[in-house]
TrEMBL record:
A cellular-component GO term for this protein: membrane
GO MF assignments: hydrolase activity
Name under which the protein is recorded: Alpha/beta hydrolase
PANTHER family: HYDROLASE, PUTATIVE (AFU_ORTHOLOGUE AFUA_2G14860)-RELATED, MONOACYLGLYCEROL LIPASE
Record keyword Transmembrane helix present: no
């Protein structure tokens, strides 16, 4: 079914019950804190973790959200992963987790935090979406936790300044300049600019590919509710610069575990060709790549059901 431009610009079918989109009952998380140490200073601090219980004795899965996200962004996929107990932390500086006390918010430092959380689990499968895929790859590459499998959703295979069309690369430069400006302004002013509802809406509208008004409405509602849940403009700038300068490819030669990649055919940040090139340089021979048609970089909203089915099938067979 196709919908007109008006439905895309102002979707009216606000969805509060995720089951309408997934066909699965909503899974309600249990929130708790995990004490980790700052990667630079060793100062202890707490990261908020949201656990979605699974069946008794269920295998565990640790999921890492993307840039400017928190645990809410992965809930549509989580709802479909019924065989698993799933932990989703709010990364430091986002959601309800405070920033790292001293360390810059870099890919390697985030990977260090993820590995500390994983040590409270039993052989967790590691999953990352978008920027979270880069963090997850860094965590695996550090070789301090025995992860049985790495799943990358919309993996970043090429630096943002090299990916997509000229328009996409120009948008990356404009966004970088905008984040730099907001970080240089007084914190309150910068935060108000970053949280401007029109700018947040435009970000989602630019990246989404679906024309289902229910999914569009859910996506915009999620972005308005959680896209501005960051600690400060400075923390956000650090994370953004990490997200546009590092890729899963940076760690490919150290990814020796089985890898599953699921991408979108219309993803501006990582094309199917980019994913194929990444698969060729991974250290592991056990890699499967799936590309969902008519899907962009917001796959976790647009095609959550298909993603969950592919993950369960692959992880069951692996």
């Amino acid at each position: 079914m196709s919908y007109g431009i008006a439905a895309r610009l102002r979707p009216r079918f606000l969805v509060r019950d995720r089951a309408v989109l997934t066909g699965h009952a909503q899974r309600d998380p249990q929130r708790f804190g995990v004490t980790v140490t700052d990667p630079v200073s060793g100062v202890p601090f707490e990261v908020a973790v949201f656990k979605y219980p699974g069946p008794p004795g269920a295998p565990q899965l640790l999921a890492v959200h993307g840039f400017r996200g928190d645990h809410h962004g992965l809930e549509l996929i989580v709802d479909g992963l019924t065989p698993y107990e799933i932990w989703v932390p709010d990364l430091p500086g986002f959601g309800v987790s405070g920033p790292m006390p001293d360390a810059p918010h870099s890919v390697e430092h985030y990977g260090h935090i993820v590995n500390q959380i994983a040590q409270f689990m039993v052989s967790p499968i590691l999953v990352g979406h978008s920027f979270g895929s880069v963090i997850a790859a860094a965590a695996v590459a550090a070789n301090v936790v025995d992860y049985p499998h790495l799943v990358c959703l919309n993996p970043i295979a090429k630096p943002a300044l090299d990916a997509g069309t000229l328009v996409d690369r120009a948008a990356t430069l404009v966004t970088d300049g905008f984040y730099r400006l907001c970080a240089a302004l007084p914190s309150g002013v910068g935060r108000r600019l970053l949280g401007n509802k029109l700018i947040v809406w435009a970000t989602g509208a630019f990246m989404t590919k679906t024309d289902d008004p229910r999914v569009l409405a859910y996506t915009h509602d999620q972005h308005q509710a959680y896209f501005s849940g960051f600690d400060s403009p400075i923390t956000l700038l650090e994370a953004y610069q990490a997200s546009i300068t590092h890729t899963v490819t940076d760690f490919a030669d150290r990814l020796c575990v089985p890898v599953t990649m699921i991408g979108g055919a219309d993803d501006e940040l990582s094309s199917p060709q980019d994913l194929s090139a990444l698969a060729e340089v991974l250290a592991t021979d056990d890699v499967e790549t799936y590309v969902l048609q008519h899907t962009g970089h917001l796959m976790h909203y647009e095609r959550s059901g298909a993603v969950a089915v592919l993950m369960v099938s692959r992880l069951t067979d692996a």
